[in-house]
Each structure stands twice: as C-alpha cells, then as structure tokens.
C-alpha cells in the first residue's frame, strides 16, 4: 500500500470528501481487518447495500480503497480493500506561495467534441433529450449533431480529442491532470464486465485501467429518467507528473512528463479499448447530465511560477 501525500491543492478534494464521513471512516476500520464485499460491509454496518455502495465509491474516488472482482464460493464478488496505509497533508508554509506557486489552465471538453474515432458495436451517442441517430450504427459518430452528445459508448475502438496547449515554450510544466466519468459497455448493463481502457496522450500510452463493469444496480444521480441502459461510471483522475503516472493516487505506470512529446498548439487525448486487449468490455463516457458527476472531460495543466 502507498502513502498518500496531499496538500491544499483542490485536486485533493475527493480525498478530503471521502474522509468527511463517520460511515466511511468505519468502513476503513473494517477493511483494515481484510478485504470485504459490499454485502459484508452492509451487514457489519447495519446499512443497505445501496448506501454502502455509495460510500465505497467515494472512498475509491478518493484513492483510499480499491475494488477488484474475485472468484469465491462459486461466484464472482467485488471485493474492497485498503489502497493506502497513511495520508499525509502538507499545509502551506509562510511565504511558500510566493516562492513556489502553480498556475493552472483548465479545459472542459464535452463528450461529443472528439476529432477522430473508430468505434464498433455495441455503440451509440445521446444527448439528455434523445438518442443521436440509431443504436449500433458507427456512421452516426460522424453526424454533426454528435457535438451535442453527453454520453457515448462502444464495444471496442477509440475516440480521440484535441485539447489546446496553453503551456508556453520555456515554462516549467509540473503536472497534467485528467478527470472523467468512465466505465465499461455491456449489452444492457452488467456489473461484472471488465474492460481494459487505454489512456494515450500525444500517442504515448499512459497506462491501462481495467474497468470492473457497467453498473446497473441503480440509476445514475443525473441520468435522465427516460434513459434505461448505461447509468453511471467511475470518476477517475489520471495525473502525469515528474515521478510517473497515477490514477486516483495509485501508480498506473512509470511514464513521466519527460516521456511525452509536447506539441506547440495542442494535446491529443485518446481513450481506447483495443480489439486485442485481455478484457474487451467496451467503454462508456459520461458527460454533463449523465451518470453521478455533472462534468465533462476535464483536462488541467499545472506549471511552476516563482523562484525555485
């Protein structure tokens, strides 16, 4: 397990929110004794599985626990376990902001604003009001109206986004951060439907995250009432630093900022499930108005300002 080293940067808000609950602290105490599934946690806490699922999602988003699918007793169980052994928070030092501060540039990319794609059924797009075109017809991914899409899904393939690069030559880039709600794409919905989702930046593979499934155990908090399939995903935060690439505070790969070839005007972000992956469970992207988090794809770059 790792030590989470945080500070007052707002990127750590999911961590602090995860800790700000008596129930979630009790869950951490229970998991310190060993992995447990949601049903076991619910029984120990005297709560419903739906309530415990909500709390474990917040703990997972904060990087405090991890979940994985394990075969046990003739069935498949989603087991939760601790992902960190300690949390350390560094408070600002007097004058520290003047000596070394960070400038952040943030761009929110709507789900439908991809610039290139190659998708294969099952697939489709929708706004919060209606489906764009027809289900399982990749041609509609080139429909002009796809710019208004707030959810998209495909069985395998990729979507690619171009993002403006506001880091000027000579500026010290310190970190790249990507935040998005994402999950697998099962026919209908299926909790046990793993998918190896590949994250590329400027054609450099940052790493692979295996989505556990396409949950259908309840409605997405924001998902429109008329929508009956993919309900919500997981809010994932990918960070590329000088030390490596991390997802929700856990090391994803050894790829560092120095490994990414910068271009002058833009970044190219590609999200892909290759047909040859070990787990080809597709991908669903949730934007504003769908899922549990009211956001599009959020891309941030941090650069150093001040003396070093």
Keywords:
five-stranded antiparallel β-sheet; globular; nine-stranded antiparallel β-sheet; mainly beta; single chain; 2 domains; 19 strands; 308 residues; Jelly Rolls; Arc Repressor Mutant, subunit A
Structural write-up:
With 308 residues, the chain is mainly beta. The chain has two domains: 2-89, Arc Repressor Mutant, subunit A (Orthogonal Bundle), CATH 1.10.10.10; 101-305, Jelly Rolls (Sandwich), CATH 2.60.120. The protein is built from five helices and 19 strands. Strands 6, 8, 9, 11, 14, 15, 16, 18 and 19 form a nine-stranded antiparallel sheet that branches. Strands 7-10-17-12-13 form a five-stranded antiparallel sheet, with no helix packed on it. A three-stranded antiparallel sheet has the order 2-4-3. β12 and β13 (204-211) form a beta hairpin. α3 (38-45) crosses α4 (49-61).
Based on the structure, what is the oligomeric state of the protein chains? single chain
Would you tell me the overall average pLDDT? Answer: 90
Record field, number of beta strands:
19
Helix content: 10-25%
Write the H/E string, N to C: EHHEHHEEEHEEEEEEEEEEEEEE
Radius of gyration based on Cα positions: 20 Å
The CATH topology of the largest domain is what? Jelly Rolls
Q: DSSP helix count?
A: 5
What would you say about this model in short?
By secondary structure, the chain is mainly beta.
SSE inventory with pairings:
Blueprint: E1 2-6, H1 13-19, H2 22-31, E2 36-37, H3 38-45, H4 49-61, E3 65-72, E4 75-82, E5 84-89, H5 96-99, E6 101-109, E7 116-120, E8 124-126, E9 151-154, E10 156-164, E11 173-183, E12 195-201, E13 204-211, E14 234-240, E15 245-247, E16 250-253, E17 266-273, E18 283-286, E19 297-305
Parallel strand pairs: 1-5
Antiparallel strand pairs: 2-4, 3-4, 6-19, 7-10, 8-9, 9-18, 10-17, 11-14, 11-18, 11-19, 12-13, 12-17, 14-15, 15-16
Helix pairs in contact: 1-4, 3-4
């Amino acid at each position: 397990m790792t030590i989470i080293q945080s500070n007052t940067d707002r990127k750590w808000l999911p961590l602090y929110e995860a800790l700000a609950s008596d129930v979630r602290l009790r869950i951490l105490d229970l998991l310190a004794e060993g992995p447990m599934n949601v049903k076991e946690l619910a029984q120990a806490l005297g709560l419903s599985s739906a309530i415990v699922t909500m709390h474990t999602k917040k703990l997972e988003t904060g990087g405090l626990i991890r979940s994985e699918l394990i075969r046990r007793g003739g069935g498949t169980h989603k087991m939760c376990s601790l992902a960190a052994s300690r949390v350390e928070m560094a408070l600002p030092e007097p004058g520290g902001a003047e000596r070394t501060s960070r400038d952040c540039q943030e761009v929110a990319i709507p789900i439908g604003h991809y610039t290139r794609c190659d998708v294969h059924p099952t697939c489709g797009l929708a706004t919060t009001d209606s489906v764009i075109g027809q289900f399982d017809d990749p041609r509609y991914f080139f429909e002009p109206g796809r710019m208004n899409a707030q959810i998209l899904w495909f069985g395998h393939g990729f979507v690619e986004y171009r993002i403006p690069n506001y880091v000027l030559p000579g500026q010290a880039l310190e970190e790249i951060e990507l935040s998005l709600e994402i999950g697998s794409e099962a026919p209908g919905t299926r909790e046990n439907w793993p998918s190896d989702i590949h994250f590329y930046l400027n054609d450099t593979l940052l790493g692979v995250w295996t989505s556990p499934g396409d949950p259908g155990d309840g409605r997405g908090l924001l998902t429109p009432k008329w929508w009956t399939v993919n309900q919500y995903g997981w809010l994932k935060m990918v960070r590329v630093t000088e030390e490596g690439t991390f997802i929700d505070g856990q090391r994803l790969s050894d790829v560092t900022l120095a490994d990414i070839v910068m271009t002058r005007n833009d970044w190219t972000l590609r999200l892909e499930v290759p047909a040859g992956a070990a787990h080809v469970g597709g991908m669903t992207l949730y934007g504003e108005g769908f899922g549990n988090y009211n956001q599009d794809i959020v891309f941030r770059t941090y650069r150093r300002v001040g003396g070093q």
